[in-house]
Amino acid sequence: MIIAKVKQSTVRVTRGGSGANDMTLFRCLIRGENFPGELIGLTAAVGFRATRFVDAESAKEAEQIAVAALREDAALTVTSEPRVKNAKVYFESIEEVPADTARVPNSGFTFFTMDN
Q1: Residue 30's closest CA among 46, 47, 11?
Q2: Reading across the β-sheet that carries 24-35, which strands appear in turn?
Q3: Where do the H-state alpha helices sit in the chain?
Q4: What ranges in 50-116 are assigned the alpha helix state H?
Q5: Which is more confidently placed, 69 or 16?
Q6: How many CB atoms lie within 10 A of CB 76?
Q7: Cα–Cα distance, 51 to 106 (Å, whole number)
Q8: Confidence class for position 83, pLDDT limits 50, 70, 90
Q9: Which of 33, 73, 81, 85 is the most buried (most CB within 10 A)?
């Protein structure tokens, strides 16, 4: 079952500093699995898909920046304890894209239940 509930993020996914214009733009397609359903008002585990555009010097750095941004994203914050230990984030792809690529939406998530 796909749940097309999108939560907006206020986390900016770029690397700071004046050298940001010299960075390469990467599009990161991200999949999360086994996150607590509490994120969207469910009791069962959920997963998500997200796309993030990241300025970085390499694909490896883009992955690190995107993970850091996900960790800070309020939409993925839960209050329950203990937290789910088997939650995972996978990068389905990290691709270099032209610098003038529209970074839309660069926020939000599409959640799905893990039972499918």
Answers
A1: 47
A2: 2-3, 110-113, 46-56, 24-35, 88-97
A3: 59-72
A4: 59-72
A5: 69
A6: 20
A7: 6
A8: low
A9: 73
